[in-house]
Each structure stands twice: as structure tokens, then as C-alpha cells.
Amino acid sequence: MTQPTFVVEHLDPELGPWSTLEYACIARESHDRGARFLLSSVPTELQMPADLAATKGLEVEHRSVEEVFADRKDKVCLLDPSATAELSPEDGDTFEVFLFGGILGDDPPRDRTSELRKKGYVGRRLGPKQMTTDTAVRVTRLVVHEKIPLEEIQYVDYPELLINEHERTEMPFRYVKDANEQPIMPDGMVDLIKKDADNDVSVLCTPYSVLVEDPPKLNDNKVAEEGLGVFQWGVSSFDSDLGGYIRKNTYMDLWLI
């Protein structure tokens, strides 16, 4: 096959730190493995972070994918969670461009890919589970470039990250497994997650020292009496019944105030 081109159509007016790390990771891996990475539809007024702009393998395009590949639309494959056919090694001989709609890693999924689906590209699926953008590109490269069938790739689903001695969070995504049985994430991602978690609970709180393995319902009176709680990754909210800040999906001590 010819050199594959991986395109992420940037669908947001801004560029956050999470996406910055993912894009840098995709660029480095693509460059190292002889593939091309194109970040398209980047607003002209968007200032790229210096570290990202200097990353080998990153090509920034202000035009949309439709404009860039207008002469070979039939060679573009859209990685689409709603597609009926799974990606296969043979697709590497059929398509030259593999298109992703950023941001893939929303939880719950917001179907951002629908904006590209309307353009009529042939779609392929990467299995039933939600992936981060860099994972989706990595899996696609393994399948179409390195000819590894989708079902033979080793994955880690919903890994837990230890934030501190009181808190751990479950990432709601599928990742590719590395040689040490750990999920492959962009450099700096774990530190960013920990930093975000620290910022999110930076209110003045007193920890109540019970760690929940199988958290009960938030409004259960027994939960309030025993000081058990569940926290949601990335979003804090105040629950009046419990008198504390609640986040779901992350298991930690309830912080009572």
C-alpha cells in the first residue's frame, strides 16, 4: 500500500491540553512509522502551542478534509462508530486516507463524527468500545499499515488510574496494551489527569476515610450516615443530601464539608 495518511478534522474552535497531547502523540507515532498525519480545519486564528507546533510529523491544514482531498473522495475512509463494517487489513489496499472526527474521546459520546458522516465518506468501525483519538489512530495504523486484524490487537478496557492515596479514577475508554500490560497513553497524559483531578477538588474539605469498591446510590440515607460517596470524572457537583461535592465513576473518600 502507499503511505497512509491519517487525518483528524479538528471540530472545536479551541485546542485544549488533552487534545494537544493526543495530537502530538499521533504526529510522533505517524512520523516514526512512515505515515502522514494531517490536522485539518484548524481555525486560522488558533494559536498552536509551541511544543505541538514543533512536533515532528505534524501537518496543520486550515482547509477542511473535503477541500484537501476533493479529487479522491473515494480513497477516504471515515472511522465511524456507527458504521456497519469493521476495519480490516484489506482496507489498507482500498483507501489511502483515514479520517477521524476530533474529539472522539467524549464520555458520554456526542457523535461528533456525524458532522463528517453527512459528507458521504465510506465508513468503518473500530469495534464496540469508545476510544480516545490517539488510540483510534493507533488501532487504525496497526490494522491497515501493519496488517494486524482488529480482533488480534491487545487492549485494556476502562483502566483505573491512581490519583492519590484516597482517589482513583476509571478512564471510560479502550486503550491499546503495551508490552508491560499497561494502556498506551500520550506522554504527559497521566500527569494532566492527576492535575485536573487535584484542581477539581481544590475546595476546602475534610476527608471521610471510607473507600468505596461498589458505591451505593448517592441519595441513600445510609450513604450519608456512613460518609460514602461516588465522584464523576471531570465534573464536580454539590449534593445537598450528602453535604459534599460528588463526582461519579471515580472511587474515592467522600469529602464532607
Primary descriptors:
16 strands; 257 residues; four-stranded antiparallel β-sheet; 24% helix; 24% strand; six-stranded parallel β-sheet; Alpha/beta knot
What this model shows, in words?
It holds the Pfam family SFM1-like. This protein has 257 residues and is α/β, with parallel strands linked by helices. The protein has a domain at 5-150: Alpha/beta knot. The protein contains eight helices and 16 strands. The strands form five sheets. The chain has a six-stranded parallel sheet. A four-stranded antiparallel sheet has the order 8-9-15-12, with helices on one face. A two-stranded antiparallel ribbon has the order 7-10. The chain is globular, with a radius of gyration of 20 Å.
Mean pLDDT, as a whole number?
A: 78
Beginning-to-end CA distance, first to last residue = 61 Å
* Overall number of strands: 16
Q: What structural class do the secondary elements suggest?
A: alpha/beta
DSSP helix fraction = 10-25%
Cα radius of gyration in angstroms = 20 Å
Helix and strand pattern = EHEHEHEHEHEHEEEEHEHEEEEE
* Count of helix runs: 8
Q: Name the overall outline.
A: globular
Task: Give the CATH level 1 class of one domain.
Answer: Alpha Beta
Q: Which fold name fills CATH's third level, the topology of one domain?
A: Alpha/beta knot
Strand percentage: 15-25%
**Lateral arrangement of strands in the main beta sheet:** 3-2-1-5-4-6
Organism: Penicillium freii
GO molecular function, one term: protein-arginine omega-N monomethyltransferase activity
Protein name: Carboxypeptidase D
Pfam families: SFM1-like
